[in-house]
Amino acid sequence: MKISIIGAGSSYTPELIEKLAEIKERLPVTKISLMDIDSKRLEAVSGFCKRYAKKLDLQVKLESTTDLDKAVSGSSFICPQIRVGGNICRINDEKIPLSMGLIGQETTGPGGFMKALRTIPAMMEIADSMKKNAPDAWMINYTNPTGIISQVLHDYTDIKCAALCSGGIRPAWIVSEVLGVNAKDVKYDIFGLNHLNYAYNITIKGRSLTKHELNKVASDVDTVSAELSVKLGVILSGYLQYYYHRNTVLKKLQKEKKSRGEVVLEMEKEIFKDFNNPEFADKPPSLKKRGGGGYSTVATDVMTAIYNNNDTWHVVNVPNNGVFKFLPDNAVVETAVLINSSGIKPVTAEPPPKAVWGLISMVKNYEMLTAEAAVTGDYDTALMALTHHPLVGDYDVAKKLFDKMLEANKDYLPLFFKK
Amino acid sequence: MKISIIGAGSSYTPELIEKLAEIKERLPVTKISLMDIDSKRLEAVSGFCKRYAKKLDLQVKLESTTDLDKAVSGSSFICPQIRVGGNICRINDEKIPLSMGLIGQETTGPGGFMKALRTIPAMMEIADSMKKNAPDAWMINYTNPTGIISQVLHDYTDIKCAALCSGGIRPAWIVSEVLGVNAKDVKYDIFGLNHLNYAYNITIKGRSLTKHELNKVASDVDTVSAELSVKLGVILSGYLQYYYHRNTVLKKLQKEKKSRGEVVLEMEKEIFKDFNNPEFADKPPSLKKRGGGGYSTVATDVMTAIYNNNDTWHVVNVPNNGVFKFLPDNAVVETAVLINSSGIKPVTAEPPPKAVWGLISMVKNYEMLTAEAAVTGDYDTALMALTHHPLVGDYDVAKKLFDKMLEANKDYLPLFFKK
Amino acid sequence: MKISIIGAGSSYTPELIEKLAEIKERLPVTKISLMDIDSKRLEAVSGFCKRYAKKLDLQVKLESTTDLDKAVSGSSFICPQIRVGGNICRINDEKIPLSMGLIGQETTGPGGFMKALRTIPAMMEIADSMKKNAPDAWMINYTNPTGIISQVLHDYTDIKCAALCSGGIRPAWIVSEVLGVNAKDVKYDIFGLNHLNYAYNITIKGRSLTKHELNKVASDVDTVSAELSVKLGVILSGYLQYYYHRNTVLKKLQKEKKSRGEVVLEMEKEIFKDFNNPEFADKPPSLKKRGGGGYSTVATDVMTAIYNNNDTWHVVNVPNNGVFKFLPDNAVVETAVLINSSGIKPVTAEPPPKAVWGLISMVKNYEMLTAEAAVTGDYDTALMALTHHPLVGDYDVAKKLFDKMLEANKDYLPLFFKK
Amino acid sequence: MKISIIGAGSSYTPELIEKLAEIKERLPVTKISLMDIDSKRLEAVSGFCKRYAKKLDLQVKLESTTDLDKAVSGSSFICPQIRVGGNICRINDEKIPLSMGLIGQETTGPGGFMKALRTIPAMMEIADSMKKNAPDAWMINYTNPTGIISQVLHDYTDIKCAALCSGGIRPAWIVSEVLGVNAKDVKYDIFGLNHLNYAYNITIKGRSLTKHELNKVASDVDTVSAELSVKLGVILSGYLQYYYHRNTVLKKLQKEKKSRGEVVLEMEKEIFKDFNNPEFADKPPSLKKRGGGGYSTVATDVMTAIYNNNDTWHVVNVPNNGVFKFLPDNAVVETAVLINSSGIKPVTAEPPPKAVWGLISMVKNYEMLTAEAAVTGDYDTALMALTHHPLVGDYDVAKKLFDKMLEANKDYLPLFFKK
User: Fold this and answer.
1) CA-nearest residue of chain D to C358?
2) Disulfide: which of A342, C271, D175, D210 matches D203 by Cβ 3.0-4.6 Å?
3) Given CB atoms, is B230 within the 8 Å cutoff of chain A?
4) The pTM is what?
5) What is the value of ipTM here, to two decimals?
6) Strand A2-6 to A31-35 pairing
7) Is D339 left (phi over 0), alpha (psi -120 to 50) or beta?
8) Given a cut of 90, is residue C32 above it in pLDDT?
9) C351/B contact by beta carbon, under 8 A
């Protein structure tokens, strides 16, 4: 069984290797194809991964290639973790909005909007390659913004795609940690979009969380108000800070000397130095600082459930298909699903908290416009997306911002600059 | 046939008298009850109205009363035009938000939120009186915020209610004026909420408006960008300036020396001086400055269609009932309807412009929370409403703002201050 | 303004001429094109119509042609009233099912199923001609089965189409007649399909019908049980006898010596003899026996409303578009609409009687399958349609019946017999 | 952990004991309460069950009682398997319709209609007892008609209820048997109602069944046409013979000397003779002839998944909740679900075969009317249910039939005979 990692030059790759070693009994991978268009980064990562796999006793063939079709061919799972334009572009995504008094936010904000426009054409290429070279394979995507990307993949292709984020399963992890219960015993309805979700109707082995327990759990999420969580009766995604505390967050960001992209850029320099050091066969300390967010756990959970046909409750980004009535059937939402070999299907849910469906609708509307704009390269559709993003919400501002960002991303947006 | 005007001490009352005189053949009113709790204003207005009716040759019995039940009894149409707390409160509605860097806006903004909380209990009293004293009568409401008020009336009472605003029919008037066609021949789908609507799919006697014509028409609306109108393919409500040009509008408001409420307050002093002048039997010049927005035309059009059982296309605030799939069935929307004696029914519509359903959902969610809060007096529901208003959109800000506004409106919100 | 009548060799044509004369002030037709592929019938009818128009003082150019494109060109309204295969085929439609112990029923039964398969290809030709020769024209269809035909026209073409039947407005006529009120003052919600509808929520100038009045009205419909009407709280389409009293009806049909088609065939012989008699310039008595069902009234009401842009409540077959939630949006239903120049739009309705949505769903499912089968010529789709028709409801029976009927209609179903 | 069996005097009880012995590791039951109102049957069954449990080495306390509250108290799972009126009533259910030329069918036919009316009041008593004595317990219902019964339980109570039938999981068993694959690896979407379902979109470990395989599998179901199965692309419930082959089935039933109820009645005499024989500690041969339909497997699968919080794909009767758009949200359907400790939730499904949604809607409409009639005792609602049942479909027939059946069931329908 072959897995391919697209964008394997990412510093996240070793984390996935580590996880695959850990669960090799349940997911008997025999070949891993590491693919990247940046051969230098790829060389560094694959060199390290080979040493690391050996150390972890993961007996698997590690192939390194810059040829997408070669990587995809014969794979059961294709895992893209690409970053078009690299961290340089990310820094623009964060700083251009900030220069206009807006939060950039590289996934759910205007920064994520630009990232989507850059990334989606590359994802479409991967989907095309899958159609030709591995039509029965699953894409296990954790490239961001995963919600908008999977919107495109579901609307414009027919590949099988699991669009993941640890943010969906995190409420279970938090409850588990704070209340000392088994994470598997924590279930909930979850409503919203990637990096913008609300877990509600939370149960532990079938019994509802008490208000006191919810308060305890909510207090553990330090980016959003626990008081607000309790009022809504939910666990909030940490990313909701950009909506519910936008003024405070904006002031904080305006004070920071370096954007998150700039910090990561420096971090990565150190990490790659370590990767290139042939003496390192174990995870270097520089990598530990980077953090991984649990992506590898989620990705391998999903692959394992599909591979072994194990019925598994999970949280994935999937087309809504009627679960939330005020969203179109094809709107990709982050919600609870049943996974097994036959695919990923949302399970029905209680109605979401009465205060939040409107916000989610507004962001989803923005996401669907962005998805369409990314595929068509239509200026007006993109502008309407940004205009209706709740963190922008002003036509004049959106237009000025979009024009600036277009200019800064000129090299990565051929569709928008075609004659 | 009797009509009662509740809040008849309003300076709008003479406009309605004028209109009733104009259409007396089609709407044979025999008695008008002018009711207000402010006997001084009522006396001034009813005094003037009697002289004015005579001058207009409107032979009708004009009754003046401070007793709601008396006014309502035996009426076919009850027309509330109340302003709880008067213009003093309106000034607060505008200025408190502005002091925190937010647009107040007395109908669609946080100002309208407070107006709704103050006004709805009084509207419920009128509905109660109708149930007892005139169960078959129609309420013809043009008290603002009419959308939220009719949300409450539809959700919590079973009176017959037509919630009007000239903003719904204005696109026809504008097309008529700009293109020199008959307003009756202009039809459209219209999507949105009161003071927040989009007219689209516009036709003149069945043929679609050209892009050139749309541009010409849109250029005539000076508060919102014609360019944006054309990109969306719609005529925008002028109130959408608060959403699409919020930064510019905010700056303008911050520069103004007097809020609109303060201007109106002064204007009204002059008007009432004129009303009290027994020599005036015709509309005083002071009143002409006040403007009426075409309310009386819309109100009498609707009453005439109901009274005569004339099938009539119109735009009214009504429960959605499936016309727009992403809104709840009971969500009151401002949309195209068929009116006749059997009632007011929305007609189905083409899907609205793809860029705007999210914004409308978010505002409608806010409106429905506000409606519930106004009836229950629940602090948290009200706070969640304000938090999710797109012009606020921040929990910390919403809380601070709500607490300030509650304090300023203490005398008008018994439900929120009950033990 | 030109109107064309397709299938003008029908004995219904004079009735339409008569009506057009009656309303010539409101619908100023200058040219009527009479088109038929049967030149002999056409000659007879057009000869008579010229004499008749003269007598009625209808000053209009009457053109007679066998060329579809010529008839359609320049028309504002195209009125098809075709009968593919003529009354001979109708007799088969009635008698083949009866020979197997089933009600044939030429519109809502298995007979109507075969009529749909024969008729739809011809209707598609008319639609094609309209697209080429009169793209802005309206088709005013009263060819049966009008529900299935308009399902096809809405699903497979984009012509403007009003699919009419007097059955939709008949409840108003009956209430008017029985209770002595103005038909225009009778309004209702109406749910169902052509020849299979339920009028409910009936009002006279806004006030509800009493149970006593309903009983009186229902007793006037002699084909269906008044007791059942009252239990359901509706006025039932007379065609519902085939569902609610099927055993009695079947026995009655089995006893009749001649089928309705055979009776009509004989009647028409006499009528055409009269048409061909140059001395007749007025409606011959033979024609009066034929009956017309009020089609011409409905057709001209609709044309007048469109032509003059008069807002008019009516009942037409239109895509459901969300009015009845348990039917697909594109499912054509017979329901209340608003008509004016901008088109025909269903108005929303109260939920239908709780006992009948399932039956309507089952018949609509059959209709949609029949529509698809008629366009594609797919044997299995047609067989599944007939199998799931509630008056058949048996796979073995459906198969035997369909094979017999296919054989009998071989000359009219090229799509089903293509290699 | 305690389980109670209500109606334990049924000959099915030993099968459940046997299964509980088999899975005792996974479902550690410590006490089983056998409850019945018929103390004689209860004595026979519980006597045998004690001997049988001992033989199977199931170390559990077996309590025997005629007191419902006592049985329910402290139970984790309550398993009703009641038959109100016994087999005598069943014989009426089958024979009265047959005497009028209709299929009786004790679950999906008019027979099932009467069984529902008799059974539902008793089920409501059990639900009441659960509310008082075991509010957190699950009802595991396999009393028929389980679809209508669970419709009532979901609409009128808030107990937790799993309404089961082996018919939902049977397609997996058949595919497993015919194609030699693991039943757990067979997944599908399933649409319909209890004893009236269609399994489609069938996969084996994620790959679709070929047409050839489907044909092979369908040929194994001997009650319905394999040809029809293949045309629809589904595995049909065997009970669909009453719809798709109703004429053949009717003739067959009319020829049979004894109804199924009469056969069972005789069989049971023999079985109870064996139960009462203290020498039998193993399943007597008479019992083997009775058949059990796999109920015990399904019941224990579900209890195990809930008890152990094991995510499990299954097929259960649950409120639709948006999965099938043309059915109301509260309509109970038999469909694929995810079960774990937090409950039973339908998973979303591909649209069902295009030919069958209408039939299911019609039967569901009948079921919902029957549910309401059973709870209210309203004659008209019951009559409308029977009138719209596709196997009746005639008002005159329904009325005659209902009156006969009411008379025959007088002793069991107090709600219908109350003054």
Assistant:
1) D362
2) A342
3) no
4) 0.96
5) 0.96
6) parallel
7) beta
8) yes
9) no
